[in-house]
């Protein structure tokens, strides 16, 4: 199975959609959807993420791999499928910014890993607080590109608390990668430097809250 | 005693010639701080060329750095294409929703005319006003977004990566249109009085695309564009890593390269020595909370790693110092350069 996952990883890095699809279809004759995700897709995406952190892959490969896997896993586990992990409710958003790549990568990776989550797109602090309240979100992932947007996370955390909402806030994006103390300063619960790390982090938070 | 014997222009030209000047030159690439100098909001400040020119001159008088910066805000080019610019009170203006919403639109895209676009005219006027005041005493840095990187704002990062990797024909069409604009825009700034052009090209960083992809995309674009810019170009990867492609960037014709704090400055300098001037690499994000002592230590460290032999301009690693960086830190950078950056450097420190 490890070998299969490694071959799948190579197909993803080569952006070979056809081969990746054939491998998933073939594996699906022997494995359940969840087994396929856990044994083949997640390990491949995790290794690609780790290789990106080590400078061995690039962001375009991480992004495209996530998108390809998201599409493939969507066929096996369509949105709303009871086998997907959708509890406790989770959402992702880009704060104040239209440059949504980081958020898009993490969203794709989480969906490819079998999670269901809401995508709020680009939001202001006020908008995200209102949405979290309305949807009873328990885990909120916030992506930022600019330093001032990253600093606005503190306002979101304060706003959530002032509304009596108990939400785990996980932050990511360039400002947090360039200043490893920033996530604590803005009162987030955690940060992740890569999408692969974000998936592992979310997995442990979801288990802790379940 | 004032040990400075050169003008900023002479000092920077020495660095670009890989010679030691009287001291290490430093660029404080401050943009928004000019609004604070003039008591204006960031949006008001960027609304008039006169404000920007005055802000740049006052900031140089206060902080003593070796350039004026003709860069207003990154999405000024997007504004020129008809896109949206969003202002915030505490950060740089940002580009709004991408204006290329369907890749098919690329077939009909026409570059804006530099001489007929008010927001570009504002930048040119600011450069001209600065030039009138400083003449040849201080370099003025003009700025363009590379044709290869500006599509992140034109169409969004994800859709652009998909275009680049899966729709080569449309990708090349977009590059052709963007290249025509970029060359015209760079040369207009030089004609207005800019001394050199900073070619911002973060997508070419190995952080974003592999070297293999870069060689068949951003590298070829840069080679074509830089050859047609009628002044010295400095390529800046805006915090992105550079080492795996440094020899390729040298081949594009860049005279200088802006480097990241994510890489070892001594290693970068070793790879660049005598070939391309290094600009960097103070961490602009962390800078916000540096103490005066931190600042002095970081400046000393950078100078010790890259200063010897010239070919080095101390700067931040992104090409724009955040609004939140306090004045004390900016002043301390200058004081530290004057203290520790005098040539010949004392390498015993």
Q: What does the largest sheet of chain A look like? A: 5 strands, parallel
CATH class type of the largest domain in chain A: Alpha Beta
**Kindly state the mean pLDDT of chain A as a whole number?**
93
What kind of sheet is the major sheet of chain B?
7 strands, parallel
Low-confidence stretches of chain B: none
Instruction: Please state the CA-atom Rg of chain A, rounded to the nearest Å.
Output: 17 Å
Please provide the ordered H/E string of secondary-structure elements of chain A: HHHHEHEHEHEHHEH
**Count of runs of 4 or more consecutive helical residues of chain B:** 15
What is CATH's topology name of the largest domain in chain A?
Answer: Rossmann fold
Number of strands of chain A: 5
Structural class of chain A: alpha/beta
Strand content of chain A: 5-15%
* CATH class type of chain B: Alpha Beta
Shape of chain B: globular
What does this structure look like?
The complex is a heterodimer of chains A (210) and B (349). With 210 residues, chain A is of the alpha/beta class. Chain A contains ten helices and five strands. Chain A has helices at 2-13, 17-27, 33-53, 59-76, 101-112, 125-135, 147-162, 174-178, 182-185, 195-209, and strands at residues 90-95, 118-123, 139-143, 168-172, 190-191. Chain A has a five-stranded parallel beta sheet, with helices on both faces. In chain A, helix 1 (2-13) packs across helix 3 and helix 3 packs across helix 10. Chain B is an alpha/beta fold and 349 residues long. Chain B has one domain: Alpha-Beta Barrel (TIM Barrel). Helix content of chain B is 45%, strand content 11%. Chain B has helices spanning 8-16, 33-38, 42-45, 49-63, 76-80, 118-134, 151-155, 157-166, 168-192, 211-216, 218-228, 246-251, 265-272, 292-306, 327-340, and strands at 68-69, 85-88, 91-95, 140-145, 196-200, 233-236, 256-258, 277-282, 312-316. In chain B, the strands form two sheets. Chain B has a seven-stranded parallel beta sheet with strand order 1-4-5-6-7-8-9, sandwiched between helices. In chain B, helix 4 packs parallel to helix 6 (118-134), helix 6 (118-134) packs parallel to helix 9 (168-192) and helix 13 (265-272) runs parallel beside helix 14 (292-306). Chain B is globular, with a radius of gyration of 19 Å. Chain B starts with 7 loop residues before the first helix and ends in a 9-residue tail after the last helix. The chains are: A alpha/beta (210), B alpha/beta (349). Chains A and B meet through helix 4, helix 7 and helix 8 of A and strand 3 and helix 8 of B.
């Amino acid at each position: 199975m490890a070998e299969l996952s490694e071959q799948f990883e190579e197909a993803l890095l080569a952006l070979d959609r056809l081969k990746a699809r054939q491998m998933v279809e073939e594996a699906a004759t022997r494995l359940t959807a969840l087994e396929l995700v856990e044994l083949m897709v997640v390990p491949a995406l995790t290794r690609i993420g780790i290789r990106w952190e080590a400078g061995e892959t690039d962001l375009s490969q991480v992004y495209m791999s996530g998108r390809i896997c998201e599409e493939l896993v969507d066929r096996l586990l369509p949105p709303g499928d009871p086998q997907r992990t959708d509890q406790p409710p989770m959402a992702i958003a880009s704060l104040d910014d239209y440059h949504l790549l980081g958020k898009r990568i993490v969203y794709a990776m989480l969906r490819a890993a079998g999670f269901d989550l809401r995508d709020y797109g680009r939001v202001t602090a006020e908008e995200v607080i209102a949405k979290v309240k309305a949807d009873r979100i328990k885990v909120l992932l916030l992506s930022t590109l600019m330093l001032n947007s990253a600093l606005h996370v503190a306002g979101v955390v304060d706003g959530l608390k002032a509304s009596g909402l108990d939400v785990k806030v996980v932050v990511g994006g360039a400002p947090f990668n360039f200043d490893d103390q920033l996530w604590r300063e803005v009162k987030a619960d955690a940060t992740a430097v890569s999408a692969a790390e974000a998936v592992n982090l979310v997995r442990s938070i979801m288990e802790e809250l379940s | 005693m004032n040990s400075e014997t050169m003008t900023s222009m002479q000092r920077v030209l020495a660095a670009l010639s890989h010679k030691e000047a009287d001291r290490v030159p430093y660029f404080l690439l401050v943009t928004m701080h000019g609004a604070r100098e003039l008591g204006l909001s960031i949006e008001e400040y960027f609304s008039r060329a006169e404000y920007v020119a005055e802000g740049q001159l006052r900031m140089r008088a206060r902080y003593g750095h070796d350039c004026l910066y003709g860069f207003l805000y990154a999405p000024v080019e997007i504004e020129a294409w008809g896109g949206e610019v969003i202002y915030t009170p505490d950060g740089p203006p940002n580009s709004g929703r991408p204006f290329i919403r369907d890749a098919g639109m690329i077939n009909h895209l026409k570059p804006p005319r530099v001489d007929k676009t008010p927001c570009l005219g504002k930048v040119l006027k600011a450069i001209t006003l600065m030039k009138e005041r400083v003449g040849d005493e201080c370099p003025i840095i003009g700025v363009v977004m590379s044709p290869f990187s500006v599509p992140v704002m034109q169409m969004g990062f994800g859709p652009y990566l998909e275009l680049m990797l899966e729709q080569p024909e449309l990708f090349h069409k977009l590059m052709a249109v963007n290249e025509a604009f970029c060359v015209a825009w760079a040369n207009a700034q030089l004609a207005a009085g800019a001394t050199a052009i900073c070619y911002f090209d973060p997508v070419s960083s190995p952080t974003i695309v592999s070297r293999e992809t870069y060689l068949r995309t951003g590298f070829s674009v840069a080679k074509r564009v830089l050859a047609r810019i009628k002044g010295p170009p400095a390529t800046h990867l805006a915090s992105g890593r550079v080492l795996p492609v440094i020899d390729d960037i040298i081949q594009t014709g860049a005279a200088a390269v802006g480097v990241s704090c994510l890489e070892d400055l001594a290693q970068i300098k070793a790879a660049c020595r005598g070939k391309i001037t290094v600009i960097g690499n103070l961490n602009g994000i962390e800078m916000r909370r540096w103490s005066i002592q931190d600042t002095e230590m970081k400046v000393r460290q950078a100078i010790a790693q890259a200063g010897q032999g010239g070919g080095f301009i101390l700067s931040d690693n992104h090409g724009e110092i955040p609004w939140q960086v306090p004045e004390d830190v900016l002043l301390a950078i200058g004081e530290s350069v004057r203290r520790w950056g005098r040539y010949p450097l004392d390498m015993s420190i």
